[in-house]
Amino acid sequence: MKAWVEKGGYLNERGRRWLSALDQQGVRRILVIRQCAFGDMMAARPFLVELRRFFPRAHITLSTVSRYQYALPRDLVDEVHVLDGEGSLAAQWRSLREPGRYDVLFDLADTSRSRLLSLVTRARVKLGFPYRQVFNRLLFDVGILRSDFHYEAEILLDFLKVMGHKPQYPLEFALPRHQPGEALRRIVYFPYAAVSRKSLSRESWAGLIDQAATRFPGYQHVLLEGHKPEESGDFLGDITGRHDNVSVQRRLDLDALAPFLAESALLVSGDTGVRNMALATHTPTLGVFFMTVPFRYWPHYEACHEAVFLRDGRVPEKSDILGGLEALLARLYPA
């Protein structure tokens, strides 16, 4: 086996020896550390799909923390380990030592807790992608460079590419898949974000949907509510009263959300977990960015995603978003 890396990553002698002698069938226990919220869990799904393809006989354990259990990809792993961050010091230490011994450890989190877990867990080889390169030498045998300018789900696959694996494209998320020819003429808007300042104001969203309903009368314009009490669509009441093609979709659970997005023509949203689920169902998206770097959440392996952002970082105007929406609809659904 060859180590498929030149200058694009870190590799110590143990990592090089492990890669040169790698027996895929002999890898039986893998620990994947991923401590993150909804959207980043979506981005980890292709990695877990491909990990199973590359190591078909391995028992895969996913380690997370108690606050990040929503949207866990339980369907893609054999076991979930939840790191205790709230109990006594003794309980937290037991939780750290609980995973046991592994053939391979992947740290896909790069948090203080994930680094501590990587340090104390026994594994034949450890792989990570820390932002600070000093942690490569301290913790890992194989290190992958992390970039803000490529889609996160593809960066995670670099851990397997260094072993010579060929991931399938478009990426496979193992979720309901958007079929363009069967899509409903429905544009979905999700105006919320985990951090409120990452999203446009309610007034801006209302104005955008009001104008979009007039400009694109052949589509149903649906505002999707979130799970928090403050993520209600009641602020759109005046507009739903004036437009027959505007409505509010009440909160959907996770199992219903994926097919709902997959059946839609397009999602308009900021940097949110819902947009990441749309990416995972291959549903076309128009992302609105002004705080986060858009490239990390903007796949280019399929042409159905577009991002609206201004080079100077200002909040995009309604005209910018409507222009992007019109161009994307014309490209995807020219009829």
UniProtKB/TrEMBL annotation:
<keyword id="KW-0328">Glycosyltransferase</keyword>
<dbReference type="Pfam" id="PF01075">
    <property type="entry name" value="Glyco_transf_9"/>
</dbReference>
<protein>
    <submittedName>
        <fullName>Glycosyltransferase family 9 protein</fullName>
    </submittedName>
</protein>
<keyword id="KW-0808">Transferase</keyword>
<dbReference type="InterPro" id="IPR002201">
    <property type="entry name" value="Glyco_trans_9"/>
</dbReference>
<dbReference type="InterPro" id="IPR051199">
    <property type="entry name" value="LPS_LOS_Heptosyltrfase"/>
</dbReference>
